[in-house]
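Lab meeting, item 3. Inverse folding demo.
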C-alpha cells in the first residue's frame, strides 16, 4: 500500500528486494507464456511474492502433462524457468512454480502426513523416517515438524534423500 507516494514492503522486506522478486516473476511469466504458446496449451499465469521468493502459478483446463507423474515435469519446468530468470538477471532465483494447484495440494497432503508422523514419534519416542522426497516436499515437512515443536533432519543422497523426524 502506498504511503506518502512510497511503496511499503511486507514484513521487513526492502522495497528493492520486493521489486527484484516481482521482476523475477515477470521474467518467469514471459518465459512460461512463450512455452505455453509453443506447446499450444492454454493457461493463465498468476504471479505473487511469497516470503522471500517469487511464485508463479499456471492454471488451465488440463495441464497435467506439465505436472507429470509425482511432479517430475513440474520440477524440470521450475528449473528451466529459474535458468531463464538467471539468464536475464545474472542472479540465482528461488522462484517457485505451481501448475494446476499441484504444489498447493501436495503441501496440504504433506502437512497432514507430518502431523501424523509427529504424533507417532511422540507416542513411540522413536525417530520416524519418511519416504524420499523432493527438496520442496522436505521443506514443507521440516516446517510442519518445527511448528509442532519437534526436530527433523534430511538424510541420504538425491534422489533417495528423505526426512527423519526425531523425538524431543
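The presenter then showed the designed sequence:
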Amino acid at each position: 500500500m502506498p504511503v506518502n507516494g512510497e511503496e511499503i514492503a511486507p514484513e521487513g522486506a526492502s522495497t528493492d528486494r520486493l521489486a527484484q522478486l516481482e521482476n523475477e516473476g515477470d521474467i518467469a511469466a514471459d518465459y512460461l507464456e512463450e512455452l505455453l504458446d509453443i506447446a499450444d496449451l492454454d493457461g493463465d499465469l498468476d504471479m505473487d511474492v511469497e516470503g522471500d521468493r517469487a511464485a508463479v502459478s499456471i492454471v488451465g483446463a488440463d495441464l497435467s502433462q506439465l505436472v507429470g507423474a509425482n511432479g517430475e515435469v513440474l520440477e524440470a519446468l521450475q528449473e528451466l524457468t529459474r535458468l531463464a530468470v538467471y539468464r536475464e538477471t545474472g542472479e540465482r532465483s528461488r522462484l517457485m512454480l505451481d501448475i494446476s494447484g499441484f504444489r498447493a495440494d501436495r503441501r496440504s497432503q504433506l502437512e497432514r502426513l507430518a502431523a501424523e508422523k509427529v504424533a507417532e514419534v511422540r507416542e513411540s519416542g522413536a525417530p520416524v523416517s519418511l519416504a524420499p522426497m523432493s527438496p520442496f516436499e522436505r521443506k514443507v515437512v521440516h516446517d510442519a515438524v518445527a511448528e509442532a515443536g519437534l526436530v527433523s533432519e534430511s538424510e541420504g543422497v538425491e534422489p533417495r534423500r528423505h526426512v527423519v523426524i526425531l523425538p524431543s
